[in-house]
Design a protein that fits this description.
alpha+beta; 2 domains; Rossmann fold; globular; binds zinc ion; BirA Bifunctional Protein, domain 2; 30% helix
Length: 436
């Protein structure tokens, strides 16, 4: 049964080295988190699984990696300078600041209880601004990107010229984005610095609706294929009043978090808005000329945009389980093997010198192909429990018999079943069990 309380995951993440509060020795830093030895591997696996599905196994999507810093012109054209704002009000009594649209009662301060104490709402831009070069001030302003998407629009013509792709085709990117959220929270669900997995899919305008439906299905299935139970996911179409002014349709993939349904990803029909905006502001042609039909057009765009860090939280919550093994309570992360930080742990039964050379040799072999851990501390039962709790699908145990029969024990995380496998067949056995 998946985690019912966010703290189950927060505690496990801290205890086992997935996620730490950032700058913790200084008391932590405002909803910022550092990914530890296991969390950094898992976050990378989430992003790799996305790239594998969106780029590697398709022939119509390419990957880019655009810069995080960008000049104001980009955000003027995209509309972010004018529109990427939250309405903020200040309480004149206690001086606290709130998002007006998050207030339960627009006349009552949730902090001090004062009535009618709010200032008029002001538009607060969510972009982080900084300065490039040695001079601060006007002319030196740059912005940390609040989404990775604009990098794909800025490079549309470059990719078109160099990649031999033509619509329908996509440009994908994985990377950090920054939003000065007023109310971050819920662990790694909403943070000011976060990581996105976005793809802009450029299509002939008349094919927009078809591809929108296609990507809604593809994206929902990605989460299910990687182990989230279908009943913990839903596709929620936006109401008309939620849509961006340029969008002709948006749906969110939502996950059942312990606090309720929350967005993992949005699939949006952005029409030709972004390319036209950048064409107009830059004076460059951003269109496609189809030589077959002699037609020139600005492609429509379907954008699946997912949050890598909150998706990692969802995978952790869904994979968490508690059961009883040998009359002892166990917590286990039933992570898909592609997402698990370590695929295999090599565990010599004892620290005795006689076992070490063989165990180390097996570790070296397996580590060539899979992220793998070597652990010779503690009793074997304790070490199995540790691997279960960090989601390692397979343990390979080297015992004294191994020196005689050239075989090892392979233990399965989910069933805890153990089988004897000849060392000569170990790598194929691991590959068959992991599925890759
Ligand atoms: Zn107040």
């Amino acid at each position: 049964m998946p985690a019912t309380d966010l703290d189950q995951i927060v505690n496990l993440c801290k205890r086992r080295g997935f996620v730490y509060p950032s700058a913790e020795i200084y008391g932590g830093f405002r909803s910022s988190y550092d990914y530890g030895p296991l969390g950094s591997l898992m976050l990378r696996n989430v992003k790799d699984a996305w790239v594998r599905s969106m780029v590697q196994t398709r022939d119509d999507v390419v990957l880019i990696d655009a810069s995080i810093l960008s000049p104001p012109q980009v955000w003027e054209a995209s509309g972010h300078l004018a529109n990427f704002t939250d309405p903020l009000v200040d309480c004149t009594k206690c001086k606290q600041r709130f998002r007006e649209d998050h207030l339960e009662d627009p006349d009552t301060c949730p902090n001090c209880g004062a009535k009618g104490s709010f200032t008029a709402a002001r538009a607060f831009n969510l972009m982080f601004k900084t300065f490039a070069g040695p001079v601060e001030g006007a002319g030196a302003e740059v912005y940390l990107r609040p989404e990775t998407a604009q990098g794909m629009f800025l490079n549309f013509a470059n990719v078109l010229q160099t990649s031999r792709k033509k619509p329908p085709f996509g440009i994908a990117q994985v990377g950090k984005s920054f939003r000065n959220e007023i109310t971050p929270g819920n662990f790694i669900f909403r943070t000011r610095e976060f990581e996105q997995m976005e793809m802009e899919f450029f299509v002939p305008p008349e094919e927009g609706p078809k591809w929108y439906e296609y990507w809604c299905n593809e994206r929902l299935n990605w989460y299910i294929d990687l182990g989230i139970p279908a009943e913990m996911l839903k596709m929620r179409p936006h109401d008309a009043d939620e849509l961006s002014h340029y969008s002709t349709g948006t749906s969110d993939v939502e996950f059942m978090f312990p606090w309720g349904w929350g967005e993992l990803e949005g699939i949006a029909q952005r029409t030709d808005y972004d390319l036209k905006q950048h064409a107009q502001h830059s004076g460059q042609k951003l269109e496609y000329f189809d030589q077959a039909t002699n037609e020139r057009y600005v492609p429509y765009v379907i954008e699946p945009a997912a949050g890598a860090t909150r998706t990692m939280a969802a995978f952790l919550l869904a994979a968490y389980d508690e059961d009883v093994v040998n009359d002892e309570k166990r917590s286990v992360l039933r992570l898909h093997p592609r997402l698990a930080p370590y695929k295999v742990a090599v565990l010599p039964l004892s620290k005795k010198d006689t076992l070490t050379p063989l165990a180390k040799a097996l570790y070296a072999d397996i580590a060539e192909r899979y992220m793998c851990e070597y652990d010779e501390t503690q009793a074997i039962g304790r070490r199995y429990r540790r691997q279960d709790e960090i989601g390692t699908p397979l343990c390979v145990t080297v015992d004294f018999e191994s020196l005689e029969d050239n075989a090892v024990t392979v233990r399965d995380r989910d069933s805890t079943e153990q089988v004897r496998v000849p060392i000569a067949e170990l790598l194929p056995e691991i590959s068959a069990r992991l599925g890759f």
